[in-house]
Amino acid sequence: MANSKYDYVKSFEQTAQLLPNTFLVVRIDGRSFHHLSHKHGFERPNDQRALDLMNAAATAVLREIPDISLAYGVSDEFSFIFDRSSNLFDRRESKILTTVVSTFTSYYVHLWPAHFPDQSLSPPMPSFDGRVVQYPSVRNLRDYLSWRQCNGHINNLYNTTFWALVQRGGMKTTQAEETLKLTPFVQGTLAAAKNDILFSNFGINYNKESEQFKKGSVIYKDVSLRSRYGIQPLGIWDSSVMTTQGDPGSAPSKTQRDKEKKRRPKAEIRLEHMDIIRDDFWAARPWLFPDT
Asked: What strands lie across the sheet with 128-135, from one edge to the other?
């Protein structure tokens, strides 16, 4: 590499390296999406086209970046989970963050015509901000995902009730806000009060609303089918099951782990709308985040 008297400027660069052996969560959020949704006439409280576009862009990110095992999204946000063993970009925070945000944004714009064929994008264009959070354990990681799903449910119930008051009840937005502020607790909870408003006034049973609207979207790499061929799911080891080399009871070698890592990009990508707070989802997919 050529050297010059200007090379000293590199010393001003700051490199933040993320901790090893931690799960990395990159959460992106739509920037000023209320303006975008108003400009393009998104349906309220939920626009199926917009949600499907978010899912399509997130799925593309999982295909592009093999180190991501799972993503969870609701509304205009998505969280991308990197394996604890990932050493992508030597765990440089800025590289990981900008790669995820730029990849997601580029696919969001690229896929827009497929979901909004009658509307062309124009400035200001869709954009996203992001952050990286590190979690040391599976418990911490699951609590994070539970927090996002819980928040998504609370916000969706509020928005469903709010827009029912406006669209079906004929209220102005300020009136609907005030009504919800003054709503008394029902059976000890605000959630029950909103359910009561929806059902009593508009015949809406919130429990029958779309699972996608209530629970958000979880996208993950499914390697379970590989067990048909005697190959352990990625990151999983059960000493009671014989390995592909016929050696029962021994831990996987470095070569086996490397081979598993290479198979990861070929894994099928699944999209689900289900509860990720309870254990059922994780018990059925133990290869996602084994606590080892």
From this structure: 128-135, 23-30, 77-82, 68-74, 217-222, 268-272
pLDDT in single tens digits along all 292 residues of the chain: 568 899 999 889 888 999 999 999 999 999 999 999 999 999 999 999 999 999 999 999 999 999 999 999 999 999 999 999 999 999 999 999 999 999 999 999 999 999 999 999 999 899 999 999 999 999 999 999 999 999 999 999 999 999 999 999 999 999 999 999 887 765 556 888 999 999 999 999 999 999 999 999 999 999 875 443 443 443 333 333 323 333 333 444 556 555 555 556 578 999 999 999 999 999 999 989 865 4
Count Cβ atoms below 10 Å from residue 127 Cβ, excluding itself.
15
**Degrees to nearest 5, angle at CA 274 with 112 and 52:** 5
CA-CA distances (angstroms) from residue 129 to 93, 101, 257, 267, 283? 14, 7, 34, 28, 33
Of the candidates 216, 235, 232, the residue with the CA atom closest to the CA atom of residue 287? 235
- Alpha helices by DSSP H, listed for the chain, are 33-39, 48-64, 93-115, 138-167, 173-181, 190-202, 211-215, 254-263, 280-283
List the structure tokens of 47.
Answer: 């626009």
Q: Are residues 127 and 31 in contact, defined by beta-carbon separation less than 8 angstroms?
A: yes
What distance in Å separates the CA atoms of residue 18 and residue 31, rounded to the nearest whole number?
25
**DSSP string covering 220-281:** EEE-GGGGGGTPPPTT---TTS--TTS-TT-PPPHHHHHHHHHHGGGSEEEEE----SSSHH
Amino acid making up residue 59: T
Count of beta carbons in the 10 Å neighbourhood of residue 234? 20
